[in-house]
From TrEMBL, chain B:
Name under which the protein is recorded: Amidohydrolase
Lineage: Bacteria, Pseudomonadati, Bacteroidota, Cytophagia, Cytophagales
Domain Amidohydrolase-related: from-to ranges: 76-395
InterPro entries in alphabetical order: Amidohydro-rel, Metal-dep_hydrolase_composite, Metal_Hydrolase, Metallo-dep_Hydrolase
Pfam families given in the database record: Amidohydro_1
Signal peptide coordinates: 1-21
GO molecular function, a single term: hydrolase activity, acting on carbon-nitrogen (but not peptide) bonds
Keywords of this entry: Hydrolase, Signal
Transmembrane segments annotated in the record for this chain: none
Length: 574, 457
C-alpha cells in the first residue's frame, strides 16, 4: 500500500496550467460602421510576399479587396488614409489548425460510467464526424481577437470532441455572424487519436481499431448505397448512418483527413492509418516530426507545424525566482549534492538538446524540401511572435517563416487565388507592424480582415510587476502542477487579516484541505509551506510563486524529491 | 471480405517492407557457443552476414568491413526471448469490454521505452508485447525485436511473426467486468461463456460471409452483405488457425476448461501464460500440444495464485510440454537467465533444458522458432554474449546483438540511454519508479483482494 501512496504523492506535484493571457489591446466594443470601406495605407514597407518588397509604397483597399499596390498609387478622396510611415505590411497570416472562435463545450466532469462501457453511444465515444464546426462558431469569442492581434486573419478551425470531432471550416478572424466568418466549409474531416473517457475506445489501441472498423464499414455501406441507387428493386434498403456517411467524401478523396498529431508516435500511427487506407492527409500541430520526414514525404501529407515550443531556457536572472532553489541546495549535504547535481545537470542538458530540436523543426523541414504552414492549436497567441523568432534563430530565414505564415498555407489550403500575398484583386487581409514583424521590439498596429480595419491600442508594458509592486494575494487561486505521472489541480485560499496571511490548499488527489503556513508576501513574490502526509511520514513542502496580475508561476519544492513547476490563476469574483 | 482482408494484409506488408531494419555483419571470435539445439562448441567463431548467421566454426576469417567481437573466455548464446511482456507499449489494456479481439498492441508500440534497452542489458532480444489480462478475450499482441535506437515502431516489430492474441481466465476478467461493471463474466462460468459465444458468433460470421461471397458473383444476385465487424474478423482468424492464443490462466480447472473449448472449436494453436497450476494438468497439456509459459518462482500475489510451486517449469518440461519462463515485468526481463537457472535448483533441469526455457521454447510459442531461439546457420543473428555461464549466479551480460547489430555493449553503456527526452518534463529523481507498466500487469487488484480477504495491508 505504500507504493500506492507514493504514486499519489508523485501526482500531487506538477503543472502546466493554461493561465489566461493578459491582453494589453483595447477591445472593439460594438464599432460603428466605418464612414468608408476604402482605405489607403501610405508610406509603408510592403512585403507583398516572401522576397517581394516595395519600400515606402501605398496599398489601396476597397470593399474588402486590394485594389492597388505600388509606389505611385492615386488615393481617391473617400479613402481613409492610414499613415503607416516606415511601418511594415504583410499579407494576413493563415493558421492551419486552431479552435479560435469555436465555443468550448462545458466540461462534463464525473460523468456516470455507462452500464456497459464497451458499447457507449457514438457521442460518448467521441465519434461525431457528422458535426460541423460552423454550428459552434462565436464571432464575439475573445480568442479571435487574441489571435488576430498577433497578425492572423484566417484560420482552419475544427470542433471540439474525441477521436472524430467533425468537419472543419476555414474562417476569417472577424465577422458579424458565424456564417459571415466562414470562407469555406467542410474543408476537412478532423480526427485525433484521442480516446474516450472510461468507455470504448478508452486507449489508443481502441481508437486505432475503431478507426479501421468505421472506415471499412463506411466503404461497404457506400458501395451498397450505390448498388441500391442503381437498381432498388428487390434490395433491402440501406440504413442511413450519419457517422459512416461522413466518411464518404474521405473515401472519394474529395475531403482530406486533418489529423492533430503532435508527437512522433502519434504521427507514425496516423501515417499507418493513411497507409492502410490511402486517404488524403493533413498533419497538423506537429511538434516532433524531424525523424519521420521520409515517411511524411512518402504519404504526401500536407504539413502544419506547431507554433507552440517548449519554454525557452530562462536567462539566469540572479535574485529572480531561482533564489528559492538555491537556498534549498545550500541546505543540502555538500557531499550528497555533487553526484545528484551532476546527474541533474546531465538530464537538464538533454532536455535542452531536445528543446533545441523542437525549435529547429521548421528549419529541418525547410531543408528537407517539405512545404509547411503553421498551426496555433496548442500555442498561446502571445507567445507566437517570440516562438517565430526562436525558430528563425534556429535556422529558418525570415522569408521562409513568412512563407509558412502566408503563401504556403494559402497553397496547402487551396486559397492562393484569394490570399497569401499582397496583390491586386486579393482579399484585404493585412497585418501592419511598426517594425519588421520578426523584430523583437515590433508591435502589430493594424490588422485588416476582409477589408475590415482593426486598430490595436499599443500600451507600454506594465512596469512595476516585475519589480515588486505589491501584488493582490488575497482570494481563491486555482493551481496546477506537473510530474511525469500526470497533472494535478487544486485550490489555494488566501486570506489577509490585518497584514497577516493565512489559508489552505487542496488537491484533487486528496480529500483533505491542508492549512498553509509561513505565508510571506514580498512585492509580487508569494511563498508558503505546508505539510503533506505520505504514509507515516510528513513531508514539508515549500512553494515559491511570482504573481503577475491574476496568474502566478513558480515552483513547489519537496526536499529531496525535487522541485516541480506550479502555475495558476486567480478565480474570478473573489 | 477476403478482398478487404487481402487488401489490409497487402498494406500491412507494404508498411513492414518499407521499415528500414538495420542488419549487420560481424564475427564473434573464440567463444563457448551454446547453440541450444546442437550442443556446445568450445573455442568457436560465429560469422554473421546481413543480420543472419552464415557460418559457425573454428578459425573463421572476417571479410573486410566486418565488426569483430572477441568472445574469448565468454559464452555465446542465442538472444533471450520473453514470451510474456508489456514493455515498449503505450497502451496495454482496452478494459472496456470482455472481448476486445479487435484491438492490437501493434498500434501502441513505443520504440522509445528505455525498458527495451534494459532488457537488452540482460541479453533479451525478442519479447512478446502483450495486451493485458482485463478481458476474457483481450487484444492481439505484437512480437517485437529489441532493435533499440530506432524511432520507428515498425522497425521494432518482428516482421512476419505470426499473429497472437491474449485471452484471460479467472479473477482479472471477472473482477473488471463482473465486479466492476456488473456484466458477464462474473464467474469462471461466465468467462467460458464469453469465449464460447465469441467463437460461435465468429463461426456464423464466417458462414454468412462465405455464403454472401459465393452468391454475389452469380448472375442476377440481389442481396445485402453482412455487417463488417473487426472483432469477429479477428476471432474468425483464430478459428482458421491464423492466430496463436496466449491465455492468462492460473488454476488447473480453468486451464482444462479452455482445452475443452478449443477442442470443441478445433483450435490447436494454444499457449497458456502463467499457468501456475500447470503441473497438475501437464499430461493433458502435452497430449493436446498446448504450451506453457510460466514464472520461475512467483506466486501468492492473489487468491487464485496460491497453489504454486517452483518445480512447475521442470514438471511441465519432464511431461513433454513445451515450456518457457517469462517476465511479465520490465524488471524480471533483465535477468531471465537467472530465472531459468532456478529450474536447476528446483527440478534439476539440464543446462540445455534450462536454457531452452528462455530461447527455443518461447520461440516455438511465438511461432518464430525457424528464425530465432538457437544458434544455427541461416537463423537471425540475435545473440547474447555472457561473461560466465548464463546459468551461473555470476553471469554478466556483456554484449547483445540483434540482426547482427550490437544493441548493447557493457563497455559503452552510457548513463542516459533515452532516445527522446520530453523538454517539458520535470527532471525527476532517479528513485522514481516507472509506473507506466505497473497499473496494467497481471497483479492488478492483488493488494485489494488481500485486504478484502485477509485484512492484510
Amino acid at each position: 500500500m505504500k507504493q500506492f501512496n507514493f504514486s499519489c504523492f508523485g501526482r500531487l506535484f506538477l503543472s502546466l496550467a493554461l493561465t489566461l493571457p493578459v491582453w494589453v489591446f483595447a477591445q472593439d466594443d460594438q464599432p460603428l460602421a466605418p464612414v468608408s470601406r476604402t482605405y489607403a495605407i501610405t508610406n509603408v514597407n510592403i512585403i507583398q510576399a516572401p522576397g517581394r518588397k516595395i519600400d515606402m509604397g501605398t496599398i489601396l483597399v476597397k470593399d474588402g479587396i486590394i485594389k492597388a499596390v505600388g509606389k505611385t498609387v492615386s488615393i481617391p478622396p473617400e479613402a481613409i488614409v492610414i499613415k503607416a510611415d516606415s511601418m511594415y505590411v504583410y499579407a494576413g497570416f493563415i493558421d492551419g489548425l486552431s479552435r479560435v472562435g469555436v465555443i468550448k463545450p462545458k466540461e462534463e466532469t464525473n460523468r456516470e460510467r455507462p452500464k456497459d462501457p464497451g458499447n457507449p453511444t457514438n457521442e460518448r465515444a467521441g465519434i461525431t464526424p457528422q458535426n460541423d464546426v460552423r454550428n459552434e462558431l462565436n464571432p464575439a469569442d475573445k480568442s479571435l481577437e487574441e489571435l488576430r492581434s498577433v497578425g492572423f486573419t484566417t484560420a482552419h478551425v475544427v470542433p471540439y470532441g474525441g477521436m472524430l470531432p467533425g468537419n472543419g471550416s476555414i474562417i476569417l478572424l472577424g465577422g458579424s455572424s458565424a456564417d459571415n466568418m466562414v470562407l469555406a466549409s467542410k474543408t476537412a474531416f478532423y480526427s485525433e487519436l484521442t480516446s474516450a473517457q472510461r468507455v470504448y475506445p478508452a486507449t489508443v489501441i481502441g481508437v486505432m481499431a475503431k478507426w479501421r472498423e468505421l472506415y471499412r464499414q463506411a466503404n461497404l455501406s457506400k458501395n451498397y448505397e450505390s448498388l441500391y441507387a442503381a437498381n432498388r428493386s428487390g434490395l433491402e434498403r440501406p440504413t442511413t448512418d450519419r457517422v459512416l456517411e461522413a466518411f464518404y467524401p474521405v473515401i472519394d478523396k474529395r475531403q482530406p483527413v486533418l489529423f492533430k498529431s503532435e508527437k512522433i508516435l502519434d504521427i507514425q500511427r496516423v501515417l499507418t492509418l493513411q497507409g492502410d487506407f490511402g486517404f488524403s492527409l493533413m498533419l497538423a500541430d506537429v511538434k516532433e516530426g524531424w525523424d519521420v520526414i521520409n515517411k511524411i514525404k512518402a504519404a504526401n501529407a500536407k504539413m502544419f507545424l506547431s507554433l507552440d515550443l517548449p519554454e525557452a531556457k530562462k536567462e539566469v536572472k540572479e535574485g529572480d525566482k531561482k533564489e528559492g532553489d538555491k537556498k534549498d541546495e545550500k541546505k543540502d549535504d555538500k557531499k550528497a549534492k555533487s553526484a545528484v547535481e551532476l546527474e541533474k545537470e546531465a538530464l537538464e542538458k538533454r532536455k535542452e538538446e531536445f528543446s533545441a530540436k523542437y525549435t529547429a523543426q521548421p528549419a529541418v523541414f525547410q531543408k528537407a524540401g517539405i512545404a509547411f504552414g503553421f498551426s496555433s492549436l496548442s500555442a498561446k497567441p502571445k507567445d507566437i511572435p517570440s516562438n517565430l523568432r526562436r525558430m528563425i534563430a534556429a535556422g529558418l530565414t525570415e522569408d521562409q517563416a513568412l512563407a509558412a505564415l502566408t503563401t504556403t498555407p494559402a497553397q496547402l489550403l487551396g486559397l492562393s487565388d484569394r490570399m497569401g500575398s499582397i496583390d491586386n484583386g486579393k482579399m484585404a487581409n493585412l497585418v501592419i507592424s511598426d517594425k519588421s514583424y520578426f523584430n523583437e521590439k515590433s508591435k502589430v498596429r493594424y490588422v485588416f480582415v476582409d477589408g475590415q480595419l482593426y486598430t490595436l491600442d499599443v500600451k507600454e508594458e506594465k512596469k512595476g510587476d516585475k519589480n515588486g509592486a505589491k501584488a493582490s494575494v488575497q482570494g481563491n487561486w486555482s493551481y496546477s502542477t506537473e510530474t511525469p505521472q500526470g497533472t494535478n489541480t487544486g485550490k489555494i485560499k488566501l486570506k489577509n487579516t490585518d497584514g497577516t496571511y493565512s489559508g489552505s490548499i487542496t488537491s484533487n488527489m486528496s480529500d483533505r484541505e491542508t492549512e498553509i503556513k509561513n505565508v510571506a508576501v514580498d512585492g509580487n513574490k508569494l511563498s508558503f509551506t505546508f505539510d503533506f502526509q505520505m504514509g507515516s511520514n510528513t513531508m514539508a513542502i515549500e512553494v515559491n510563486l511570482t504573481i503577475d496580475g491574476t496568474s502566478f508561476d513558480g515552483s513547489m519544492n519537496v526536499g529531496s524529491y525535487g522541485s516541480f513547476p506550479m502555475k495558476g490563476s486567480k478565480d474570478p469574483g473573489l | 471480405m477476403k478482398k478487404i482482408f487481402s487488401l489490409f494484409f497487402a498494406c500491412a506488408l507494404l508498411t513492414t517492407a518499407t521499415a528500414q531494419v538495420q542488419r549487420g555483419n560481424m564475427l564473434i571470435k573464440n567463444g563457448t557457443v551454446l547453440t541450444i539445439t546442437k550442443g556446445n562448441l568450445e573455442n568457436t567463431d560465429v560469422l554473421v552476414k546481413d543480420g543472419k548467421i552464415s557460418q559457425i566454426g573454428k578459425n573463421l576469417v572476417a571479410p573486410a568491413g566486418y565488426q569483430t567481437v572477441d568472445a574469448t573466455g565468454m559464452h555465446v548464446m542465442p538472444g533471450i526471448i520473453d514470451a510474456h511482456s508489456h514493455i515498449a507499449l503505450t497502451a496495454i489494456n482496452e478494459a472496456t469490454q470482455p472481448n476486445t479481439a479487435q484491438v492490437w498492441t501493434g498500434d501502441a508500440v513505443d520504440p522509445f521505452d528505455v525498458s527495451i534497452y534494459r532488457a537488452l542489458a540482460g541479453g533479451c532480444t525478442t519479447s512478446h508485447a502483450m495486451h493485458g489480462s482485463a478481458n476474457a478475450i483481450g487484444g492481439q499482441c505484437e512480437t517485437i525485436k529489441h532493435r533499440y535506437g530506432t524511432t520507428d515502431p515498425e522497425v521494432l516489430k518482428m516482421e512476419g511473426a505470426p499473429r497472437t492474441i491474449k485471452f484471460a481466465l479467472g479473477e482479472n476478467p471477472t473482477r473488471v467486468h463482473g465486479e466492476g461493471n456488473g456484466i458477464v463474466p462474473r464467474s469462471r462460468m461466465g468467462v467460458e461463456f464469453v469465449i464460447r459465444e465469441a467463437f460461435s458468433e465468429a463461426k456464423e460470421y464466417i458462414a454468412a460471409w462465405d455464403t454472401y461471397n459465393a452468391a454475389k458473383n452469380q448472375k442476377g444476385f440481389r442481396g445485402t452483405p453482412p455487417a463488417y465487424d473487426l472483432k469477429k474478423e479477428t476471432i474468425a482468424d483464430i478459428l482458421k488457425g491464423n492466430i496463436i492464443i496466449h491465455c492468462h490462466s492460473y488454476r488447473a480447472d480453468e486451464i482444462y476448461m479452455l482445452l475443452r473449448v478449443c477442442k470443441d472449436f478445433g483450435i490447436k494453436k494454444l499457449v497458456f501464460q502463467h499457468v501456475n497450476e500447470g503441473f497438475k494438468v501437464a499430461p493433458e497439456l502435452a497430449e493436446y500440444g498446448a504450451m506453457a509459459s510460466v514464472f520461475a518462482d512467483w506466486w501468492a500475489y492473489k487468491f487464485e495464485v496460491y497453489y504454486s510451486t517452483a518445480y512447475n517449469a521442470a514438471i511441465l518440461t519432464k511431461n513433454g510440454v513445451t515450456t518457457s519462463i517469462n517476465s511479465d515485468s520490465e524488471e524480471l526481463i533483465r535477468h531471465l537467465y537467472h530465472e531459468a537457472a532456478k529450474t536447476q535448483k528446483y527440478g534439476g533441469l539440464s543446462d540445455e533444458e534450462a536454457l531452452a526455457l528462455i530461447t527455443i521454447n518461447p520461440a516455438k510459442q511465438l511461432g518464430i522458432e525457424a528464425r530465432v531461439g538457437s544458434l544455427e546457420v541461416g537463423k537471425e543473428a540475435d545473440i547474447a554474449i555472457f561473461k560466465g555461464h548464463p546459468l551461473s549466479s555470476y553471469a554478466v551480460p556483456m554484449v547483445t546483438v540483434v540482426d547482427g547489430v550490437v544493441r548493447f555493449d557493457r563497455e559503452k553503456d552510457a548513463d542516459d540511454q533515452r532516445i527522446y527526452v520530453d523538454p517539458k518534463a520535470v527532471v525527476d529523481n532517479a528513485t522514481f519508479h516507472n509506473y507506466s507498466h505497473n497499473h496494467d500487469n497481471c497483479l492488478e487488484g492483488a493488494e485489494l483482494n488481500m485486504v478484502k480477504l485477509f485484512g492484510l495491508n
